[in-house]
Amino acid sequence: MDAHSDNIKFAGDYNLPSIHIHSHNNTGFTREEDGVNIQSLVSEMNIYEGINKNSVVGTLVILDSINLIGNLPIQGTERLSFKLSTPGAHEQGHIVDCSEETGYPMHVYKLTDKKQLNEGTCSYVLHFCSREFLRSLRTRVSESFEGTIDEMVTKILSDKDYLDSKKTLFYQKTRNADKLVVPNMRPFKAIEMLCKRALSDQTESSSAGYHFYETTKGFHFRSFESMCVNSNGMPRQVKQQFNYMPTMNADPDITGVIPTKNSKPIDKILSDLTSVEDYKFINNFHDVAANTSLGTYGHRVITHNLYNKSYKVSDYHYHNYFNDTKHTDGPNPAIVDTPVDFDDKNVSDYPESRVSVMATTQFAHGEDTGAFGIDVEQDGITEAARVSQRNAVSAGTKLKLTIKGQSYLQVGDVIQFNILSVENKTNSEGKQDPHFSGRYIIENMRHRVTTREYLQVIECAKDSVVTPYSTGKEDSFDGHKLPYEKERSINLAWQDDIGTMDGY
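User: That's the sequence. What structure does it adopt?
Assistant: Structure tokens below.
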């Protein structure tokens, strides 16, 4: 689409008034032009973001019949400005704003796949990224920091000698303070090191380790737990529900609605926006062998205290520590604590599944604390918890969906995926899949814009199941009956607190 509109015509409709490319001297073909509008040359635009990606990157597939490469020229230091949105979106947080006026333009850094299609046309791919991606390659951090971890990250992100970012930082406060020397590291690498040391400020939480990532709306520094629950420990509001249901053989009438089995009309556009075009599970938590070797279930960390020449053995037990953090679908682990062998032990009862050695010390900077800025005696179990929590997501249940583009969605958001249980595929009133339906966190996202429509390919993850597995015990996990479904329905009306500079 080439003009702004508030009226959405179909699911996948979008506003993209222009795509301007600015040359290295901030001009177009002539110095009077403010860049060149190349939208008519672009056959496809892709934007990528993820909770394990420090910056936003993307590509433009160009069909060039005006020799843009030579006339602009393109050398890898150009800027791209555009503004992508779903029709009707007005809030800044609902728009992918990479404009020069109100947003932050992207930077071209590479040209690949150049081909001659015919005598007057060639094709190639322009690769672009956010400004901070290149700043991290061009600068180094060599500084001593003191304070909380979130304060250190804020300093690196905003300092004019480092990333010098003007973008909004959404962050979760950390409870641990420390003194730390960053020895000549790239800014993103320094922040990744701080992520490993960060401890959540959630009360009564043992969440360890943070994610630092960029979305099309700004930078985020937060734990996976904060993506699942708010600062009060209650489930975050679902940003969108997606349904994969059997196709109904009904034609839309002239009013743009389709009938349902109970004869209640549903708006066709809304139905299409919440429908899944395609899905597949790209990973699942039942690779017990992989998760055992990774230390997800059991992990022994031997810490060597360099200060007093002592060592300590800390054993992590997945099921014993599971309720110390919040999860996507509540306190329902993806694997139960029933015996798995003749020794009557469960998967968490083998701490030697993974053995790590960790050096730690006190008074490295005059403080009686260890590697995490807390009591040195807790370093081993904290490191084991961090490794387990990261693995539970990266090696957990992962779902890939293709949906109609909705510009307000970003990685880190909560979605609800509804899929019928296998035995109920022919019955639209059947029950939901007890383990693979439910709440997911968007982990990776691809915005795919063509001349016809706007699609999103999202990869989602969860570290628990919506319905607990039966263990043969009277109560659910850990002896507690937790009506999580009722709790969720009560909190759907809660106003999400994401977006404040004061933290999550």
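The first helix runs from residue 68 to 71.
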